[in-house]
Design a protein that fits this description.
With 219 residues, the protein is mainly beta. It has three helices and 16 strands. It is globular, with a radius of gyration of 22 Å.
Length: 219
């Protein structure tokens, strides 16, 4: 008898829950999949998670969940990288096609320069590293530096031989150098040098093969 009661309770609970979640007349609700999380970014009391369809954020203060997609704010689909900028509380999002969004409060600012640029190299954004007001985007062709405050591209670094496109997997920085992990090894450039000039980037050869990422994370 108890099992029958539990079954009926669960049955009616699901009906009530489903009915309560029905979208009101004249309103829209997305039905995109959010089950496959790709990367996380902790932003104070909120945790952002990118998925193949959009973003959901979990608010630790009240355990609420919010979904953000192209339907209600984002400029694109296919987010591949995300990072939080503590200096001004903004969240930077990169996409597989080079598109860039900056979430600042309740407003989403879009930067389409990379997406719209005609080039033969991949525009895929692999990762984002934040340093103060700047976001360093590891792209399929090089490094793109975003001024988060001005919401614009500050610099682009093509560090391959003769300035060729190079797939940048990750970027790290200390007080002296910016380090870039590539499929050809680790490159570094002095923060006081002319990083736009490919000749100012040095391929580091005195590290153990196959361990570029572990080496970078210790810098």
């Amino acid at each position: 008898m108890l099992k029958i009661f539990q079954f009926l309770f669960l049955f009616f609970f699901l009906i009530v829950t489903t009915t309560a979640q029905q979208v009101a007349v004249g309103k829209w609700r997305d039905h995109l999949p959010y089950s496959h999380g790709l990367k996380l970014a902790a932003a104070g009391s909120k945790i952002y998670c990118i998925t193949s369809s959009g973003i959901f954020l979990f608010n630790k203060s009240d355990n609420s969940v919010e979904r953000i997609s192209k339907i209600n704010g984002l400029s694109d689909v296919g987010a591949t990288a995300i990072a939080y900028a503590p200096l001004n509380g903004a969240v930077v999002i990169g996409y597989s096609n080079g598109n860039i969004d900056i979430i600042d409060g309740s407003t989403v600012y879009n930067i389409q320069d990379v997406k719209n640029k005609i080039m033969t190299g991949s525009k895929f954004i692999n990762d984002i590293m934040i340093d103060g007001r700047y976001a360093y985007l590891s792209c399929g062709f090089g490094i793109v530096v975003i001024d988060i405050v001005r919401r614009e591209i500050k610099d682009t670094y093509l560090i391959g031989t003769n300035g060729d496109f190079t797939n940048i997997l990750d970027v790290a920085k200390d007080n002296q150098f910016i380090y870039a992990a590539t499929e050809k090894g680790i490159f570094k450039g002095s923060v006081t040098g002319n990083l736009v000039n490919f000749a100012d980037w040095i391929n580091i050869t005195d590290i153990a093969p196959g361990q570029p990422f572990a080496w970078m994370k210790n810098k």
